[in-house]
Amino acid sequence: MSLNELTAVSPIDGRYAARTSPLRECFSEYALIRERVRVEVRWFLALSDSPDIPELPPVSAEARQKLLAIGEISVEDGAAIKTIERTTNHDVKAVEYFIKQQLEVVPELAAKSEFVHFACTSEDINNLSYGCMLARYRQDILLPACDAVLKVLTAFAHEHADVSLLSRTHGQTASPTTLGKEFANVVARLKRQRKAIAEVELLGKINGAVGNYNAHLSAYPDMDWPAFAERFVTSLGLEFNPYTTQIEPHDCVAELFDAVSRFNVTLIDLCRDCWGYISLGYLSQKPVAGEIGSSTMPHKVNPIDFENAEGNLGLANAMFDHLSRKLPISRWQRDLTDSTVLRNLGVGAGYTQIAVDSLLKGMGKLGVNQQAIAADLDGAWEVLAEPVQTVMRRHDVANAYEALKDLTRGNAMSEALMRQFIEGLDIPETDKQRLLALTPAAYTGQAAALARDI
């Protein structure tokens, strides 16, 4: 059976292939092989540029361009490397042999092919390759996705900053807010997580089999290898980690995915709130022509986009959780349990991308049913018990809280009953009139201003 969107085992490459296809540039087997070739080529060039390695003189400008071109492998080149791997049964060694083959047709470099993969362990190449892949993913896909969500939610918060909304702490009627303020709360949380994602330092190392430059110093004992390694790692756009075993310990990968997971958890919270507001009738969904909500109930317009997003965010975080818990652990100086796990970096990213697309689609279909919102507010005069008892306490009215509790708790409350209670209060007339003018819809504090300010 040939592989296509119908036969793929994972929905990431099957049902949702169109949504996740940009991730192939970052996390596919081809992308990993390409990064390995790039790192190997740049390491060769860095060695040739060092005056401390006379056996590998600086390459000419023409040869340098040919080397860099080798680093930009095609998918066909990737397949050729996989063919070599079937013999070597070692993926990084296959990359080394491929590059050496390419150097054979460059006379200036053919005799220097032993400096390919010089003093390196496979993990020197792998950790830098994965670091570059994650950096590209964060810059090109993840942060733009975060920004797209923030843009939509911020616009929604501004547009509906003044729409009074009945709060429901513990699911019960509570002091009103505004619809815009509730979305502004989400924006503020997401901004923190977006900042955390952007600030994670992606680390790299190229210090040999156990992190001590053993092989490097055996060949060139007078060279400052730590300084050389740091310059090389930072030239790739990564931060240098001077203390490692054979592997870079992957703490930074865990930090990145933990930050993404927190962003996703906030989105799950949002999806559930939107689902609830749709259920209450506060938010409506614009019907899409031809779309069916139920195979038997024709009237249904289900909140499927928010449900889809919530489900996929959960899948993403399950993968991120395993990666962040497993990757920083390695027996002694190295075991291979991280190797197969690292090949799944794109899985959590894929489910996150699917979820974000669904969320944005759902937000694009949302409408606001101000009549339903206003009706619920007008039927919840008990929420004014809070401001009334607070003003009473200001003026030292004894047992203010208890009096409002007796009036409102468990009792049907109406505008007339609340006004009657306020009329009988022994408080200054100015405050009495202010309370009499108050309605549930007007009792929103700074909510509108906070929503507009986000």
Cα-atom radius of gyration: 31 Å
> What is the makeup of the main sheet?
2 strands, antiparallel
CATH class wording of the largest domain: Mainly Alpha
Terminal CA distance reads 52 Å
Order of helices and strands: HHHHHHHHEEHEHHEHEHHHEHHHHHH
- Gross geometry: elongated
| The number of domains | 3
Number of helices: 21
How many β strands by DSSP?
6
Percent strand? under 5%
Give an overview in words.
The protein has 21 helices and 6 strands. By secondary structure, it is mostly helical. It has 3 domains: 102 residues, Orthogonal Bundle (Fumarase C, Chain B, domain 1); 252 residues, Fumarase C, Chain A, domain 2; 75 residues, Fumarase/aspartase (C-terminal domain) (Ribonucleotide Reductase Protein R1, domain 1), CATH 1.10.40. The strands form 3 sheets. It has a two-stranded antiparallel sheet with strand order 1-2. A two-stranded parallel ribbon has the order 3-4. Strands 5-6 form a two-stranded antiparallel ribbon. Strand 1 and strand 2 form a beta hairpin. The chain is elongated, with a radius of gyration of 31 Å. The two termini are 52 Å apart.
Question: What is the element layout, followed by pairings?
Answer:
Layout: H1 17-20, H2 24-27, H3 29-49, H4 61-71, H5 75-88, H6 91-103, H7 107-110, H8 122-159, E1 164-167, E2 174-178, H9 179-199, E3 203-204, H10 214-219, H11 225-235, E4 239-240, H12 251-280, E5 283-285, H13 304-326, H14 337-342, H15 345-364, E6 366-368, H16 370-378, H17 385-394, H18 400-408, H19 415-423, H20 429-437, H21 447-453
Parallel strand pairs: 3-4
Antiparallel strand pairs: 1-2, 5-6
Helix pairs in contact: 3-4, 3-5, 3-6, 3-8, 5-6, 8-9, 8-15, 9-12, 9-21, 12-13, 13-15, 17-18
